[in-house]
Amino acid sequence: MTVPLLDLVAQYQTIKDDVQKALLSVVERQSFIMGAEVAQLEAAVASLSNAKHGIACASGTDALLLPLKALGLQPGDEVIAPSFTFFATAGAIHNAGGTPVFVDIDPDTFNVSHQAVEASITPRTRAVVAVHLFGQMAAIERVMALAVRHDLTVIEDAAQAIGARRQVDGEWHMAGELGTAGAFSFFPSKNLGAFGDGGMMITQDDALASRLAKLRLHGGAKQYHHEEVGTNSRLDTLQAAVLLVKLPYLAAWSAARRRHAARYDEAFAGHSAICPPVTDGANEHIYNQYTIRAERRDELQAHLKSRGIGQAIYYPLALHQQPCFAHLDYAEGSLPHTEAATREVISLPVFPELTEAQQDAVIEAVTAFYA
Fold it and tell me: 20, 160, 230, 231: least buried by Cβ within 10 Å?
C-alpha cells in the first residue's frame, strides 16, 4: 500500500460543496482584493488565538517580515532565532535589516532553548523570534520573561502551530497570543491551509496592528497616501473564502492528528532505534508534523521511498549551516542539538484523513526496516 505524506484531495472531498460555493460567491461579486471575507477571517483567527487584532497578508513569510520591518532594524541590530526551523525565519530577519543570531534547541521538543536565548543576548539584541516547531509551542512564558528583563520584542513564529496552546500558571494561552506579534502561515500543507500562499499576523497592540495594516498596503491606510514605504502583501479574497470554510474543522482535524500521533507513539514505544517526538506536558500539540529521531535515518528514508511511504526530512541543513549565512562564522559543532537533529529526524504521515490501514502500512514499513 502506498501512503502519501499529505492527502489534500481527501480533505477537499469532505468540504468540496462548501468550498466551491464560497469561491463562486467571490467570483460572482468580482471582489478579489481585500473583499469582505478577508476581514471576516482576520476577526475569526484573532478570536481563535485570543488576540485583539488579526492582520491578513500574502504569506507566512510576510507575516514574519512585516513585524520585523516595523522594528526599524539598523545595521548591527541582532535578532535571536533557533537554527532548527524553516528558512523563512532567518530570511525575514535578514530582509528586515537585522543580523540573525542562531541558537540551539531543546533536544526533546525541537523548540528553541530559552537558556540558549538568554546566553545570546547582547546590547545589540533587539528581538527574539520564538518558533513553535512542528505544532507544539515553545516555552514562550520563559522567552517573554527574558524579553521583559532586556526590553526585547518577541515575535512568535507560529507558522506550523495555529490552534496550538500551552498552560502557563494554570491558564491556557494560544500560539501567538503572548508575544508582541504572532505569525501564521496558510500554506496548503499547514493544519489550516489555503489553496495557495497566505498568512496572518496577530497582536494585542493597537498601534502595531494599525502599522502592520499599512505596511501590507504599500505603507498607507488611505489609497494613494503613504506615510511610509511598505509593500504589497494582501491576502486574496479567494484564499480567505477557502480558509473561512476550513476554519470550523480545524479543531477536529488537529484532534485527529493527535490520535494518529498517539497510535504511532504506542507502536514505537521502547524501540531501540526510534525515538518518538516528545510533547512538553504543558502543551497541547497539533502535530503539523509527526517527527521521529531514527538511527540510520537516510537508509530508512530510502527504504520508505521504495515502499511508497510518504516521508520528509524537516530539516536536513540547519540555518547556521546554510551557505548564505557562512559569513556569520558558526563552527561545526557550535549548536550540537540542532546539528544532531538534522542528522536524525524524519517525519511520517499524520494528516487527519489518514486511515488505520494506511497508518498500519507506515508502522510496518518503519519497523520492518529495523527488523
Answer: 20
One-letter amino acid at 139 equals A
Is the pTM above the cut of 0.90? yes
Integer Cα distance of 272 and 255 in angstroms:
28
Q: Residue 174 corresponds to which cell in the numbers above? A: 494560544
Distances (CA, A) of 96 to 67, 157, 281: 9, 15, 35
C-alpha cell at 53: 487584532
Mean pLDDT of the chain: 97
Q: What is the CA radius of gyration of the chain?
A: 21
Spatial strand order of the sheet with 290-294 comes to 274-275, 290-294, 345-348
- Residue indicated by cell numbers 530539516: 315
Which CATH code is given to the segment(s) 8-248? 3.40.640.10
Q: How far apart are CA 154 and CA 147, in angstroms?
A: 7
CATH class, range 249-370: alpha beta
Three-state SS for 157-188 is ECCCCCCCEEEECCEEEECCCCCCEEEEECCC
Residue 67: predicted pLDDT: 98
Mean pLDDT of 293-299: 98
